[in-house]
Write a structure and sequence with these properties.
Blueprint (H helix, E strand, L loop, with lengths): L4 E12 L2 E13 L4 E5 L6 H8 L9 E9 L2 E2 L5 H7 L4 E4 L3 H4 L6 H12 L7 H14 L5 H4 L9 H13 L5 E5 L7 H18 L2 E6 L2 H7 L2 E6 L2 E7 H6 L4 H8 L49 E2 L5 E2 L10
Parallel strand pairs: 3-8, 3-9, 6-7, 7-8
Antiparallel strand pairs: 1-2, 1-4, 4-5, 9-10, 10-12, 11-12
Helix pairs in contact: 4-5, 5-7, 7-8
């Protein structure tokens, strides 16, 4: 069976005062129906830009897909006009954004914003305002909103952070998409609400057999939520494999560094390891490993040659010149 989503050699650029800047470089990912893929990396690695490229929502003017393909159910949507992809948003693929306070329209009531999704993408099933409002109430109830009929009349600022996130989930799932992109959906929430939201997303995903691209910094959430994980650094995927394999035996030094940075599992009062330096602001085209300047295992070769993506005996992808000799 062909995957629901297949990304091959995707490259994206945005315009800056100094010229075009590559923000996603040669990214390849595969996601099947009902599967969950976690996309992990530090801020500035290109995770959100990858998600925005799938939805044709790269920053404008100047944001564009400069190379590669994005096949959704076998159709290359990277080459489609934006208007054609707009028709797919909501109905075929949907996105939960990082901050619901800025994603929701502050001057429209919650009910109107949910029913608008239905009027744009499901007018055949909900042809009038009455049916759309009834479905909006049902969706709010499904995502665990207390007193959903009353909340229909609320504005975003009248809701808590967790309730606003529930509204975002209701809007994303309103038209029963096949692919859900969740871009750090629990970033602004406390741990209790975070657990509730993730349990809700997973339950709805399983009941609807949706695929999910889950973007986060939280490795524990990835381990508990995802089937596969892709590690991203400076616009490129450096390691990709099953959750069990990557967490048990990471191949790339950057993956190992991220796993070591987790607070749990370390002796009390011991310092949590950190990686010196930061993600480069400009990725450039230099022929070297982009992680070399921060890697404790880097050699002269790492500074002079760009690693190609390779696969180990189990099919896991890794892009590191020394992964076969390193024991991480």
């Amino acid at each position: 069976m062909q995957p629901l989503l297949q990304i091959d050699n995707l490259r994206c650029e945005v315009s800056t005062d100094s010229g075009p800047k590559t923000v996603v470089d040669d990214v390849s990912l595969t996601l099947g129906a009902g599967e969950t893929l976690g996309l992990v990396g530090e801020s500035g690695c290109g995770k959100s830009m990858t998600a925005l490229a799938l939805m044709h929502l790269l920053p404008q003017p100047g944001g564009r897909i400069s190379n590669g393909s994005i096949r959704f159910e076998g159709i290359n949507i990277a080459g489609l006009p934006t208007a054609a992809v707009t028709a797919m948003r909501g109905s075929q693929m949907a996105m939960i954004f990082q901050d619901p306070m800025t994603a929701l329209n502050p001057v429209h009531r919650i009910g109107k914003q949910i029913s608008e999704c239905l009027s744009l993408h499901a007018v055949a099933r909900f042809p009038d305002t009455t049916s759309r409002n009834a479905e909006a109430v049902k969706l709010l109830q499904e995502v665990g909103m207390p007193e959903p009929a009353e909340r229909m009349e609320y504005y975003p600022h009248q809701l808590s952070g967790g309730q606003r996130q529930r509204v975002m989930i209701a809007m994303a799932l309103a038209c029963q998409p096949k692919l859900l992109i969740a871009d750090e959906p629990t970033t602004a929430l406390d741990v209790t609400v975070q657990a509730e939201i993730m349990a809700l997303i997973k339950a709805l995903q399983q009941s609807r057999n949706m695929a999910m691209l889950f973007i986060t910094h939280d490795l524990e959430l990835v381990r508990d939520t995802c089937d596969h994980i892709a590690i991203m650094y400076a616009g490129r995927i450096v390691e990709c494999g099953s959750i069990g394999a990557v967490f048990t035996s990471p191949r790339h030094p950057y993956t190992r560094a991220l796993l070591d940075s987790r607070p749990g599992g370390r002796a009390r009062k011991s310092l949590i390891p950190s990686v010196p330096g930061q993600v480069p602001q400009v990725f450039g085209t230099a022929e070297q490993c982009r992680f070399a300047d921060r890697c404790a295992h880097a050699t002269a070769q790492c500074h002079s040659a760009s690693p190609a993506a390779e696969h180990d005996e189990a099919g896991r992808m890794v892009a590191c010149l020394r992964w076969r000799e390193l024991s991480l």
